Amino acid sequence: MDRPTPMEAGVVKRHRLSTRLWHWLNALLLYVLFTSGLGIFNAHPRLYWGQYGANFDVAWLTLERFPGWITLPGHYSLALSRHWHLAAAPLFAFALLAYMLWSLANRHIARDLAFRRGELAPRHVWQDIKDHARLRFPTGQAALRYNVLQKASYIGVIFVMLPVIILTGLTMSPGMNAAWPWLLDLFGGRQSARSIHFITAFALIAFFLVHILMVVLAGPLNEVRSMITGRYRVPEDRP
Amino acid sequence: MILTRRHLLLGATATLSGCDRLARNESFRETLFSAENFHKWAQRGLMAPDALAREFRPDQISPVFRANGTANPNTPAYKALWRGGFADWRLNVTGLVSRDLSLSLSQLRTLPHREQITRHDCVEGWSAIGKWRGVRLKTILDGAGLRSNARYIVFRCADDMGGGRPYYESIDLADAFHPQTILAFALNDRPLSVANGAPLRLRVERQLGYKQAKYLMGIEAVDSLAAIGKGKGGFWEDHADYDWYAGI
User: Of A60, A192, B3, B111, which has the maximum CB count within 10 A?
Assistant: First the structure.
């Protein structure tokens, strides 16, 4: 979020160009990665914990194949799903790295994402949870800052979930196991990494669904416009 | 606008079939497939040339080592070799070498061995850990005297993949001379079973399962993969668009 600069009455410039570009690049890449990832999963729809795991070993999750309408490509092709996934993955990883460094340099993280004094106090957090539950969205100046639940979810996604899904992806690569053997120790083995990769993918889907719900409830046109042009109409204070 | 599940499904299907159309476009396909080059370059850059694949403890070995691909070549020639306990089997080393070799199983067993407990990763996603014993490929290549213009080692196999096309694979010299790249004749302290590639199979531990050619019959040193199969260097690479570099 930029330090909001007033433009016309009640309209501010909200999101930086870097944030907007990264947002839409992610929308595209995560879509490709998720659907092609399900295509890859279909080649062996069983998940294990530990260093090894194959048909004769105990799986903690066994699923049917995901249907063609949600996989990329729409028919079963492990090779093509892998090509999509492995082409999108480096773009996604380097974009995250660039965004992290850029947001550190331009103080986006320090200014907008870091928790402020008192924000993590139980009373404040509880108040925020109650406001969310009542769908009482902030208005006026308060709408220009991320609230504590919003900050927590953005920090969780940017600094925990996305790095975890990238590193567990690398852990599944036998070449990367030789290059960075510590990956295997970090996640407890290739099959554990595969399980964590899968779980994190669905956790990101859960984030996506809540994210869309919040955008719809908070005023979809205004929210989507602010992520495209950067311009955001500040919600008026409730009487 | 009211979004129903049906709309969402239609939307998802339309977008995904758009992606499928894109993937049929020749130049887009090439771009998509060229990610392999990036991964190979990046991985080779990040790893020391002799960086080892993880070796495991005996208690970490998979209770059952899953066999995959061809379970039994079943060709008359292979059956004859198997009936004779592979006494008549020979590994032929040809191509860009100073002297062709023809090695029997007992000759291979007298060469220095390497033993390694490593993880086999199938491209499908499963893994199995097993203990392999075999001769370093380097030992064989040094014995044959690799010529300076050799760039790749091609592996010829006994299993017929349909229409009289035997399985084949290839690796470059970086992997051919790697300490863990061995021609294995034993798995978990027993002679290699037919399902796992008897009498001899390749282990190239920094790559996926389809590179681990089974039922080896010949090794050929070449300067280019263009004349091998359809030119991509391996059976699945040629017939199913798998990446040649399988470290990913």
Answer: A192
Per-residue DSSP letter, B161: -
Minimal Cα–Cα distance from B127 to chain A, Å?
Answer: 5
Give the per-residue pLDDT at B163. Answer: 83
How many angstroms separate the CA atoms of A204 and A207, rounded? 5
Nearest to B46 among A46, A73, A179 (CB): A179
When pLDDT is cut at 50, 70 and 90, the band that residue B1 belongs to is very low
The residues in B 5-24 lying below 8 A from A, measured between CB atoms, are 9, 12-13, 15-17, 19-20, 23
Structural domain of B200: 53-240
Interface confidence, given as ipTM, is: 0.92
The pLDDT confidence band at residue A197, using thresholds 50, 70 and 90, is very high
| Residue type present at position B85 | G
Q: For A5-233, CATH number? A: 1.20.950.20
- What are the tokens at A209? 């669904």
Please choose, from the candidates A86, A80, A83, A106, the residue with its C-alpha nearest in 3D space to the C-alpha of residue A22: A106
- Rounded to the nearest angstrom, the minimum Cα separation between A36 and chain B is 10
Q: Give contacts of B66 with chain A, Cβ < 8 Å.
A: 54-56
Residue B21 lies in a domain: no
Split into its structural domains, chain B has a count of: 1
Distance CA A201, CA A208 (A): 10
Nearest to A177 among B54, B125, B126 (CB): B54
pLDDT given for residue B11 in this prediction:
63
* Interface contact B124-A43, CB threshold 8 A: yes
Mean pLDDT of the A89-111 span? 94
CATH of the domain at B219: 3.90.420.10
